[in-house]
């Protein structure tokens, strides 16, 4: 990863894009999908994301469900059967995208096969791709996506730095070798030796740190890995959050995440694989509000008084005063000089400057020293 150019650490000045992950929480129902669009828009999300797939191209009949899927949907059907019940048709995807445009929220979908990706570009009009963690090593799909030369948001759950670098090599090859077919996987690492490849990756690719478990326990999240990704590759880094609650997503923004992705649902008690690990509408709204507060609070890093603080200086700070009556000609000393509020007089930093000076006039108790 030493070939990756470094990027200036100005991430704290950016506004995170918030992706409300609808995923398959529509349960194959268009009306519910449209309700999810409305909910995400009202919550203030920048983007709502769905999933585009054909079950028969994604899993074989022998594919088992993940343990969390068995826990949420039972073991009575295979993964393939479950996926078939969660598909959206191409016409439904177009209708959802139109609803997003009307609601002024971005539409995004994760394609799980080449045909779905092509449909999203040619018939839905997506302007970017989101790649799920499960396809981090799916070189044929990554190459197909990169051929469209669109931005890619790449989740890295279950991945190592070496696997992420390989994926970036595939994407860079697709960006720059539009017609060429790789002869071996070595072609992907070779393209990363070109400076322009990293320039293009910095422009178009965002890496999402992720823990692929639903829900993911806090101890497994490892938010500091975002810094490792940023250091290794010099790309924008975000967080795809599978934990319970909103606090870790908010913490990720404070650590510089430029994208936050979080599952949400209309009702956590609905049947389906992902509802239990998703936010409900009021929680999504609260998360987005908290993230925007954190971004506002991050500031620009300069340690100067906030304008709102200036009026409190005289109230909270202190000035030099006499602690007993002092007559003209008497010398100031530790016995007759002290510091008290308000702070609109001589700064206590000058305490030692005034020691042994001659009082120019009479001072009453608690009267402020004149500069």
From TrEMBL:
Residues of the AFP-like domain: 319-371
GO MF assignments: N-acetylneuraminate synthase activity; N-acylneuraminate-9-phosphate synthase activity
Gene3D superfamilies: Aldolase class I, Antifreeze-like/N-acetylneuraminic acid synthase C-terminal domain
EC class (word): transferase
Catalytic activity, EC: 2.5.1.56
Coiled-coil boundaries: none
Any single Pfam family the record assigns to this protein: SAF
Keywords for this protein: Transferase
GO-annotated biological processes: carbohydrate biosynthetic process
PROSITE patterns tied to this protein: AFP_LIKE
InterPro entries assigned: AFP_Neu5c_C_sf (IPR036732), Aldolase_TIM (IPR013785), NeuB/NeuA (IPR020007), PseI-like (IPR051690), PseI/NeuA/B-like_N (IPR013132), SAF (IPR013974), SAF_AFP_Neu5Ac (IPR006190), SAF_PseI/NeuA/NeuB (IPR057736)
NCBIfam families: NeuB_NnaB
Protein name: N-acetylneuraminate synthase
